[in-house]
Amino acid sequence: MAERNSVSTASALAVLTALSATPSYAQNVASSSGLEEVVVTGIRQQLQTSQARKADAEEILDSITAEDIGALPDRSVTEVLQRIPGVAIGRVPEARDADRIAVEGAGATVRGLTWVRSELNGRSAFSAKKSRTLGFEDIPPELMAAVDVYKNPSAAMIEGGLSGVVDLRTRMPFDSPDQVLGVSAEYAVGDLAKKERPSGSFLYSNRWTTGIGELGFLVSSSASQLTSQTHTLHIDKYYARTDLPGYEGQTVFAPGGIGWRELTVDRKRVGGSLALQWKPNDAVDVSLQYFMSDANFEQNENALWTEQGGGLTGTNLQVSNGYLVGGDITNSYFNASARYNERQSVNHDAALHLTWHASDRWRFDVDVQRAFADTDAADLTLGSPTQGQGAGTLDFDLRLNGSGRPTIALGPNSVMTDPDQYYYGWAMDHYEKNDADAWAYRADGEFTFDNSDWLDRIRFGIRQEDYSSTTRETGYRWGAVAQSWGGGITTFGDASVPYTRQAFSNWFHGGRAPSVYLFPRASAFNSRRAFESTVHSVETGGTNCCDWTPWNGDFSDTTPGNDGLGINTQDQRTLAGYVAAHFGRDKFDGNLGVRLVRTENSGTGLLTFSGINVVGAPNELAFANGASYESTDDNSYTDVLPSLNLRYKVRDDVFLRLAVARSLSRPDFPLLLPAINITADLGLMVNGTCQELPEGAQVGTCVYAYNGYSGNPDLEPMRSWQYDLSAEWYINATNSITGAIFYKQLEGFMETSLNSSVDYTNNGQTRTVRVLRPENQGDGYVKGVEVAYNGFFDFLPGFGKNFGARAAFTYVESAGTRNIAANPYDAKQRDNSALDNYPLEGLSKTSYNAELYYSTQRFEARLAYNWRERYVLTMAAANLDIPAWADDYGQLDGSIHFNVLPNLKVGFQAVNITDAPYRVLVDNFVQRTGLTYHNWVSADRRYNVFVRASF
Asked: H or E segment at 908?
């Protein structure tokens, strides 16, 4: 007999979620197995509502619900996602940035693929930076009622989620039968940052019966702060050496240098949700929803490194298995930088929805959505190297320990604390101002059959979306400030810029950093104006080659043909219609439908025709005349997307599912930019044939070939046929065992083409240009399995039945596919994306999560562990320009809470309990070094205490 728990007034908020998320299936399981209906709160209710939603879904779905306001199991949406079978999260803010991690996670893959569609309450949701996908780390988890992940779509779902759809659901006032008031407060601290930060949330919901019908109102808000810190040890990429002292003539792989850094991130996140519902009669239901989030990230980083490169040398060098593993390394100076980065991302979403039950058989829905987002970012870096020193002054002892953290020790010296030994060598800034907005209109109808033997209902509908995205980026503007080779240095002692003595305290949770270092204080340059003023106050200049110059504020001043940045405006209109039949007979039910969607894209980019030094070829001079102008390119395509979702009930508690669907993922907007910088390979005309210009010649008499690299406005989506077969055993309302086999056949995979020929016209002349650009070329597949268990150990005697667990394992493999350059204008990204025999970025072959629970009416505890296998972060890591891999990583989190009073709960949560090391490897394939360890990162253990009350 299952334990029956009573519901007190403290569960009012839990009832809100339970009524909205718990279908009748969970009750059916209990009654069919002879058990009493179980009404519970806390972890048991969270498992019950999640399981019931999965069981009753027509699609293959996994869900995590919040049993209380602010009570998703983790403190960021990204971290919540990692608890779902088949979902893995990233740990770096940007894939190409292999040197920094995001402690709350960033980005998500579903079944190994990154092409995830994001939704808010079943509607399109996006960010201004990532364009087609939300930055999940920007969204307040306190406002969520549930996070749903769809693995295979149905015809009624909006297209675009080739790997899966993540739908974030907020609450509605009619979800609860009564008034609900809930508040929560918490304090969080990281044991490295050691700064306490508050968070809080509030929800009020009520409904009234009036003369015009039933009215409902809900408002919720949240404000959250967190300061986190990471420590990083850095070993540069390796080089193949035959001149290493003591090993001359042998091939030895040796690193190019060392470094370490401390990064502190201040995150502030506020959000709000407003919902109105009106039900004038039983036939009509009207709702208005509004959601907003505002996330601000400030990063302060102090980093230093050596730059021996392929010339690293020293004494007492030790080699093992062909790799340098230690020795006394010669070093004459350090390079370093103080970096300030700020990003603010804002999302707004408003939607009006009308449901009309025209009769017992007819239902109609109309939905209008307005959404917009913007992102502003500034990245400001001031270089602070030391002056060159005499032999032995800054030498260091290096010990490499395989995957273990290396040890670096500097001998005693006076350089590292002397401001006269530091100078302002260089500066770099980067700015972004991006925005995106959309209008979406949708109308759906449904006809229900009364006496059909197998056809339950027919659904149909149309949807139009007008979506616009504009990104504005400057590139990273590096320049010399005060160099000995360009006007002379300005030391810290010479300048009035404040600096700080960075001791790197509590290094890697209790150790000692290799050395202290002096850095410019970030507060002196944490805005564009302050940055320019600081640089001007210390610059000497005079190189005429690479002096840092202030940005003029014009994003269009950047030449897109060189770096793909500047301004990228993309407009997209989609018009979709669908029809789906929902059926059921005996033990079978499901839906069969087709979605037809027309996509029209329009993008504007800058065409640049570089001038040439050629004589006797007036037509070539006319074409390559140094001109530039904007060009708009259009593209359109139509997709037919059939889908089948079939369920077979072996028993009332055992299901088999089959899902087959055609899906797509549209190209990211940077890949569509129709910008190009056309250059010429000059030649000499010989007997009427243009031949390549001899080596050393500067002037040609013809053009041998025109070249350029660009985005491709003619790109079409990557498409797939995807197949799922799953088995689900719902043991009782909270316990289940499920498994799935999946296969995706990918078509039109976007790869970098090395020999595309495209005609361009300028000044009355048309030439064929050899263009390197992304194109739909490759085919491949992704396949794998998932298995999961959820539940409590009700079979155990006594208090043992209060224990429970959730566990999931995923295996994924792929073949026949290659990676695509995120920025086709970046030469290293473009070239490296053409490399074969690398798995897809973000794809871990194996991953798993396991959670252990203990739950009673008064006390609950949870331990959760997530692990994923090594995977490719990027094919071209920033500053290294070679592939980088994230190593195997597992993290242990936990929480406890007490129901102090019927309406008051207090708790404690810990994240990264075991100080899991995050490691990055790199592959210097040019030198054939194989994978070598590059970064070792230690992040905060985060602790927070919280109070939640409901009335």
From this structure: strand 904-911
Dihedral sign, CA of 519, 520, 522, 525? negative
CB atoms within 10 A of CB 659: 24
What average pLDDT does range 238-251 have in this prediction?
95
d(CA 519, CA 384): 7
CA distance 174 to 53: 18
| Structure token digits, residue 169 | 């659901």
DSSP state of 667: P
Which amino acid would we find at residue 379? D
Cα gap 890→912, rounded to integer Å: 9
Quick: pLDDT tens for 761-794. 999 999 999 988 888 887 889 999 999 999 999 9
Contact 752, 743 (CB under 8 A): no
Q: In this structure, are residues 722 and 740 in contact, taking their beta carbons and an 8 Å threshold?
A: no
Instruction: Read off the amino acid at residue 554.
Output: D
As beta bridge partners, residue 574 has 465, 599
Q: How many residues does the chain have?
A: 951
pLDDT of 564 reads 53
Longest dimension (CA), the chain: 98
Which amino acid, residue 772? L
Residue 581 φ/ψ, nearest 5 degrees? -105, 130
Specify the pairing of strand 197-210 against strand 252-255.
unpaired
Query: Strand 846-855 and strand 859-868: pairing?
Result: antiparallel
For residue 933, what are the β-bridge partners?
921
Question: What's the rounded Cα separation, in Å, for the pair 360 and 448?
Answer: 8
Task: Decide the pairing of beta strands 942-950 and 931-939.
Answer: unpaired
**Among 860, 946, 858, which Cα is nearest to 900's?**
858
DSSP secondary structure string for all residues of 202-246: EEEEEEEEETTEEEEEEEEEEEEEEEEEEEEEEEPPEEEES--TT
Angle CA 904–16–23, to nearest 5? 135
CA separation (Å) from 192 to 157, 290, 510, 579, 684? 44, 37, 10, 55, 65
CB of 97 within 8 A of CB of 438? no
DSSP state at residue 13: H
> At 523, is the secondary structure helix, strand, or coil?
helix
Q: What are phi and psi of 531, to 5 degrees?
A: -65, -50
d(Cα 244, Cα 319) in Å, to the nearest integer?
10
Which tokens go with 347? 């999302």
Q: Are 673 and 591 in contact (CB under 8 A)?
A: no
Residue type, 312: L
Closest CA to 897 of 884, 908, 889: 908
Return the structure tokens found at 490: 């300005």
3 state SS of 451: coil
Q: How far apart are CA 447 and CA 929, in angstroms?
A: 64
Pairing of β 676-686 and β 588-609: parallel
Q: How confident is the model at residue 11 (pLDDT cuts 50, 70, 90)?
A: very low
pLDDT per residue as tens digits for the range 283-303: 999 999 999 999 999 999 999
- Please check whether residue 579 is in contact with residue 593, taking contact to mean a CB–CB distance below 8 angstroms: yes
Number of neighbouring beta carbons within 10 Å of residue 836: 5
Helices (H), 518-637: 528-538, 560-563, 618-623
Say how many C-beta atoms besides its own lie within 10 A of residue 495's C-beta. 19
Which residues lie across from 598 on neighbouring strands? 575, 638
- Per-position DSSP letters for 80-140, written without gaps between them: HHTTSTTEEEESSSSTT-TT---TT-EEEEETTB--EEEEETTEE---TTTSSS--GGGS-
Contact 91, 98 (CB under 8 A): no
What's the mean pLDDT in 623-646? 94
**CB count, 10 Å around CB of 409?**
12
Cα–Cα distance for residue pair 804/791, rounded to 1 Å: 5
